[in-house]
Amino acid sequence: MEADGRNPAQVRSQVERLRKGFPWLDVVAPATPGNGIEVLSESEASQAAEYGRNASVAGRLKFVPASGAASRMFKDIFAGAARLKAGESLSEDAPLSRLSSRIEDFAFYTPEDFPDRTPLAVAEELLSDTGLGYGSKPKGVLKFHRYPDEVRTALAEHLVEGSSYMRNSDGSVKLVVTVSPEHLPLFKQALEDVRETFEKRYSVRYDVEFTFQDKATDTIAVDSEGKPFRKNDGTLLFRPAGHGALLGNLSAVDAELVSVKNIDNVAVERMLPTTAFWKEVLAGRALQLRDRIFGYIYALDQIASASPTQVYPSIPGITPADFDPFASDEAQALCNEIELFLRDVLCVTIPAERSPKARAAALRKKLDRPIRVCGMVRNQGEPGGGPFIIRASDGSTSLQILESVQLREPLGGTHFNPVDLVCCLLDSQGRHFRLEDYVDPQTGFISSKSFEGRELKALELPGLWNGSMSDWNTLFVEVPVETFNPVKTVLDLLRPAHQA
Questions:
Q1: Residue 263 to residue 65: CA distance in whole angstroms
Q2: Cβ count near 317 (within 10 Å)
Q3: To bridge 271 with a disulfide, which of 44, 51, 267, 314 should be the other Cys (CB 3.0-4.6 Å)?
């Protein structure tokens, strides 16, 4: 383990966590409109978008998690092909049957590549390495959308999106895309295929960085008895620890305002005006929060730096030990305002403090954190996480995104998390927050997997937009469902949002 750069003590703690599991979170209530989720009027949304366009920002950047192969996207196609090879038949509504019957409607179709349109031939051409090889390629380089004069990959659509709502004042569009090392040549080629054309078309300059998930963040797996899982060759099995392992990649970006959106959540360009507007709304709300929070921090610091004679000039003999600058009526009024802001806007409450000075310090600590504004769509049955109000062990409350596995029992919610975030990563002094300081280590995941034909338990780090951002200032904003267009299976590419 040490030779691979791993900490044996940390690995032992991972094994213990896999044996014991994670504690259930104390859920106060699902976040709903008016109680944790903002539903903006048309004028409020427009004002937020305008604020975001005009605010001073130390760099804008688009962060796109794109690691991993697209194998899950074709899971049903692999299964259908296996059934046909075993001599079984498929129903007309089976995924592979639907794929082959509508093959011409997919952007990756050409008559030359699919001369035989029988289901098994289509599956083999699409998935095998002797054909298109989509079964082992990453989603970001797959052909998603067909236009009259071109075909675009998911990566290409993110470049188009970035030119619309994440353009910097110097005309640059910065993207950080997390990829697997083995896929890097494919991503570089996909970028070069369109870079020059798009830069001329959209009058921008693309600055794209591909980063890898740190192998040191891989976590150990255990077998059914809770013992470290050993592969057939006797070595220990370490697995990628989920998207929470990307926190280091996010922490390293050189920008204040960062948009986070998964690689597969893109639509055809005719839907971009809606997507871009609501991204600008989220950015505007993040920057409105930033400026209000910075104002509060400045006001608190001004009071804290006051001398006894400035506050109590008529009382001689006060020593610094006796002096509490937050005992004044003005300071108490400010603290009351901040407490109401935290409660009513961010659903943050704090336990009662014994002294005015301690109360002010607790409020300042809550203010001085990274900011995230998360778009939430109305729940339409999509699998995934949702917004909740959580109570921490110290009695404080906050807004969190939870996955279903983190809930002791199903809790009805009105909204769903589409992974549509805008983050502010600098503090009031212009310094980058150390994001690792704001993680809740008690919010990881344990999932059941298999390797070499044997069952195992895998450990995932606190999710990037879940426990990794647990101690951030969080705001949930309702966004239209039209902004959420993920491609979880290949048949999702037949939805209107992916058909030009």
A1: 6
A2: 6
A3: 267
